[in-house]
Write the structure tokens for this entry.
Amino acid sequence: MAARDQHGPQAPWGDAFQVVGKPHRKVDGMAKATGQAIYTDDIQLPGMLHAKLLRSPHAHANIVSIDTQKARAIPGVHAVITGADLPTRYGVIPWTMDETALAVDKVRFIGDPVAAVAAVDEDTANLALNAIEVEYELLHAYLDPREALERGEPTIHANKRGNNVSKQVDLAFGDVDEALESADLVVEGDYSFHGSTHGAIEPHCAVAQVDAQGLLTLWSSTQITHYVHRALAHVLDLPAHRIRVIQPSLGGAFGGKSDPFALEFVTAKMAQMTGRPVKMLWTREEVFYAHRGRHPMQMHYKTAADKDGKVRAVDAKILIDGGSYSSFGLVTTYYSGQLLTGPYAFPAYRFDSTRVFTNKPPCGPKRGHGSVQPRFAFEVQLDEVAEKLGIDPIEIRRRNYLGEHTQTVNGQRITSNGFLECLDKVERASAWKERHGKLPSGRGLGVAGSMYISGTNYPIYPNDMPQAGIQLKVDRSGLVMVFTGGNDIGQGSNSVVAYLVAEELGLELDAVRVIAADTDLCPVDLGAYSSRVTFMVGNAAIDAARKLRKLVVQALAEKWEVPEQRVRLVGGFAVDLEDPERHVPSREAFQLAEARFDTLGSTGSYNTPTLGGDYRGGTIGASPAYSFTAHIVEVEVDEETGRIRVPKVWCAHDCGRALNPMLVAGQIEGSVYMGIAEALLENHDMNRFGLHAGPSLLDYRMPTTIDTPEIEALIVESVDPEGPYGAKEAGEGPLHSAIPALSNAIFDACGIRLRHLPFTPAKVLAALREKRAREAADASVSTSTSSTPAV
Amino acid sequence: MRVIRFVLNGDPVETAAPAHWTLLELLRYGLKLTGSKQGCDKGDCGACTVLVGGKPILACLSLAARAEGQEITTIEGLMPLHKSRGGSGADPVQEAFDACGALQCGFCQPGMMLSTRALLNQHPQPSREQIQAALSGNLCRCTGYTQILQAVETAIAQSTGAPAPQPAWARDRELQGQEPQS
Amino acid sequence: MLRLPQFELIEPSSLYGALAALAEHGPDAMVLAGGTDLLPNMKHGLFEPRMLVSLAGIEELRGVQVTSEGGLSIGAMTPLADVADHPEVRRRAPALAQAAGLVAGPQLRSMGTLGGNVMLDTRCQWYNQTHFWRQALGFCLKKDGTVCHVVAGGKRCVAAASNDSVPALTTLGASLRFERLGQARTIAIDELWHSDGANNKRTEGGEILTRIEIPATPAGHLGAYGKLRDRGSIDFPLLGMAVRLDLDDQGLVEHADQVVVALVARPVRIKGVHEALLGLRPGSADFEQALVPLAEAARRQCRPMANIPGDEDWRREMVAVFTRRTFLAAAEGASD
């Protein structure tokens, strides 16, 4: 059975780490710095065809007919396919398979793929697309999630209930109503979160090739090789062992490359049909249609608290705009409630979340999947509780601290918890005590906190096999090859694996090489999502390396006739600790072990312990370890223009242990940037036609160097008992509380509470006007009351 | 087809491309130098930045014919000569980007590093504001630009022999007596 | 990758060659300057010329010269970055230098030219999109369609003039030299515009904008450009405004002007500016007080529309704020 947590969080030899904890370079850094790294679109194969998709210009319509005759007749066109050629439904969640590679019978958003062409070049393919004739019968298009909730016909997806609900989750823990009744204070309010998208600079791309034996190889810019592998087998009706999926270098993902996509099935199918390699590279516009970004949510929250600031209960009702397909929506719906129950103790908690389908590009997982939106609402509401009770916003967060080695109200096990230290760090670094509430008008500081998962024990498809596997292969040269199914999407997971193996085997980093995300070569890993890779793949790597180390140590101990405890692998050598003169290079140590035992290698794996509450959905969001974050954001509000400038953000993040603090800081900084970006500038917005309002990197305003705040990343190490050397996640948690901290800072700056994202200048000005009107009304009321005798 | 003669990363090139090909297509698909990246299709992201006569331009909005007679530097040429050919190895900008963690997914970075190189050639010791302005046409989605600015300032420090600036996380760890930056 | 349509490329090395090519090919040919506007528009299917006449190889169209009268003569193919950095432009026409330095991002300023910016196509969120996108909503008035998505029932295109350089050039009283084979004409930049967003320029076939001439500014000339945009780089203006203040030898305003773009199809000159500021001393309390009603007057005269991104009511409010701030920025030059 898969190993877990038996390695403990300390260095393999019980004292100082040799590799871990230092800002080492990444294993692929110079390849990327010099342009040598190969990304999917860099692959150019002899005879390669170029494929393009015909997309629906209608938001909701039945397909009456498709005529591809003229397109097929164009010289240079090798294949034209429609939904009829790839009719099998798929979806990343096995319970909600509602997608097809190309539309079958109906289209559900503007941009839904309808047909595909493979031709000798892109120009010819485009010419052929124009020659395809599609007749549509238009249906009512749902753009407003509330309408989709209330109106049943037409349904976007046929379901038994005859409605447009994608998923509904209603869970309650403790007596919420009693707490709302008896608490000293209840704050209630509406909050909304808009859509945003990942914006990875690399557009999606796939290249498929079928060799003479009929083996299909797909190179794809995916962040989950394993699910693409499974989905291809399913949709193409091909045994999985006849398919090889490889993820080349990946140009960013952030959740946007988690689903299997049309281009993977279409290129594979067309490579089968034509016998030639086929590439499809999406335009930036197509990437916007593929989306799977942040779900817009309309949220209603009630927080009950006592005078001392202790939260008594939280009650949430959430409407989630899912767009046109399920994607990860089942998980999103759970996460919108399940992940709010820390870092604060809730004695009672209830949430009622409903995800509906609309005729818009499908939403899915974006960095901080499902939990960024509720976190925003709650942390702004908690700030209001603090304000009403006259408690410092940091203090109220301390008073509600959940604690470590405990359980949340919804039954999630909490191990390490460095949240208090996170608060301490940002409080000190930002000079909060001296500055909060004391800055000149228009300038302010705001705080917020959050927690996030380090993977979950919900494996997407039910199975008892490990979530992460590693194989090590030792060469007589002293080189250790690591094979991992883990997807390095830029976060540096291949480097982390190399650091861990080097640490365990006492090797220099250049004696470890990593082959990743190739289904022919690498053991399965479930992929780069839910911030699971460092935790799970890391544990598997330690597991495998420790097994190998045992063999090497044993072989040397026997050879030197000393107890095994005296043999230590360090710095590229095996050393007798009591007689350091006696040492051999790792290469020789490996050769001895190979002679002693046989061809040298090992495997390692990780699976989660049994986790989660004992109720339906209780395992979704149940993580072996949670990260914790605190943000303080400083703002300057221009009260004339309504524009918000963020000069600085402090973010302290508890990542358990920083296996490489430089990479952890990079994850924190990238998260903070992305959070502030979506709060202030970005909007994945549909116009009145249901068409994306500006599907380009000109109109979708991702911040430049000039627009990005100075970010101070502060690392907290709570050393988790089960993480690899104590590590937890760092890639998603540090986004969450940036957004509510920004809203809370705006309140400190000018007394307005922004509850509806994005924080556009127009909204800021409107809120300021409303505040002035209120103040003027209050002033006139107080004047009139003072001049009028009481009745 | 248009015959195009130019100097690419120090070497003379004679090639041909259809009139409607962009310089980016010529470099990536014609000449197979795939280090220059395509991110947005139309001049909004900067991933395709190359140097023409030392100035950063966008290859996705330049016709291939624009290369005629020019000296063009791509990321592949930023390391002008490999050590094996008697060169000095990687450009200090490349080294600094690697050493500072500025390369996450790495996709925007060829363009970012070329914009940096062009800036440093013109202003060897730019201010933080000048760096931000010079890189403001290159979008990065991974780093929040923090480690990129760190890398540029590290490359500058190296050229003057000054100590590299210390990032916030490292200062904080030093205060706690943890490992200083190696 | 989003593809360019196919075309033939003509690359003359002399102005004569370019004019001859245009004369020969007539409406089949379009002029390619820096390409930063035309090429994305072609990728969007907005233009499909059979022939492109590139001006890149014509040396005589490049460069900034100071005229004998103390004015500036700028070749239309001078890159915006060179205009922004040129010491004589910065000294004699500060608003133009600022505006050129605020166009798009650094790479596009190295590629894009001053002439290209003057000749920039109007912009609209319903127009600057791909063929697929525009087709999905049945196209629009400006291209391939008959309806306007900005103004319900609108029969005249309201795409916005979005050229950052034009407000400055207009306050500077610039004139434009157009040449066609065997002919040349020079017009005041004011005379270039139509109020039709579909084609907002009074140009004739076969013409090339060759030079931008700016008359000498007096010793007491001040100017500034204010640009409203979401990001600190890359973006087109949500509002672009140049102001001009000429001071007499006492330091009092003897001439004032203000021109705004990113509203409607043509640049808008704000009325009453000269009268409002005449005789005032920049930096004085009187000057600052006069800006308050002037800002309000400017707001009343400008009507941003939902043609380009950004809330149009907010953009209108910003006319007032930017009027005050841009005049104050110009006035700051007075204390130098």
Remarks:
- The mean pLDDT of chain C is 97.
- Residues 59-119+160-214 of chain C form a domain with the Uridine Diphospho-n-acetylenolpyruvylglucosamine Reductase; domain 3 fold (CATH 3.30.465.10).
- The first strand of chain C starts at residue 8 and ends at 10.
- The interface with chain A takes residues 1-3, 6, 105, 125, 129-130, 132-133, 135-137, 230-236, 309, 311, 313-314, 317-318, 321 of chain C (CB under 8 Å).
